[in-house]
Automatic annotation (TrEMBL):
Keyword Disulfide bond among UniProt keywords: no
UniProt-recorded name of the protein: Glutathione transferase GstA
Residue span(s) of domain GST C-terminal: 88-227
InterPro entries to which the protein is assigned, alphabetical: Glutathione-S-Trfase_C-like, Glutathione-S-Trfase_C_sf, Glutathione_S-Trfase, Glutathione_S-Trfase_N, GST_C, Thioredoxin-like_sf
GO MF, any single term: glutathione transferase activity
Organism, as annotated: Rhizobium ruizarguesonis
Keywords: Transferase
Tagged with keyword Transferase: yes
Amino acid sequence: MKLYMHAAACSLSPHIICRELGLDIELVQVDRQTHRTSTGEDYLAINGNGYVPALMLDDGKVLTEGPAIVQFLADSVPEGAALLPEVGNIRRNEVQSYLNFITAELHKPMVLLFNPIYSSVHGEVRALISKRLAWLNGRLAGPYLTGETFTVADAYLFVCLNWSPWTDIDLNQWPALHGFMARVAARPKVREALQAENLEAFDAGGVYFAPHAYLASSGRTGEPVRP
């Protein structure tokens, strides 16, 4: 399988799930400006929307949209039931509920904060995100979103919250979420994914990670991630 990705983007979520499940995956970088891949392909011919992630199966079929991809990956091997319970188990629906919440209420609004076109409404968007994070902070049922077990939804939330420093959102005001970030960042397979994408930790607690180019452009400094 091939995972079309961009370092630290939402494609990091399925990348983490592949590592957690021990799936053999080829990472293919996508240039956001040219829409060319690191292997010379026209990415728009693979995903006409132009954004990552996209998962190309061994038979050439392509699956897009992160929440769908992580569910497919979890269902592809028996071990995946630990990350996404089987059909008929209400815990599966709870995980899917969080996937929908993250994509609609966190991921898409946070993306707007990266785009200067929407700068006139950044304050309102940030206020909405803060409201959703406050709700989520009170909902954490344990170490992870649904309790003691790490799921595909936790990987997705980790990736979105990792953008917090770049969108002027201070997670320190929500201790449960900050603790969540530290726990997920410490998982060995998550560390492997971060290292494979050449992401560096730039905060004292090693909770947030970014490509070196982002660190350099913002005047931040980081340390290489080590599993």
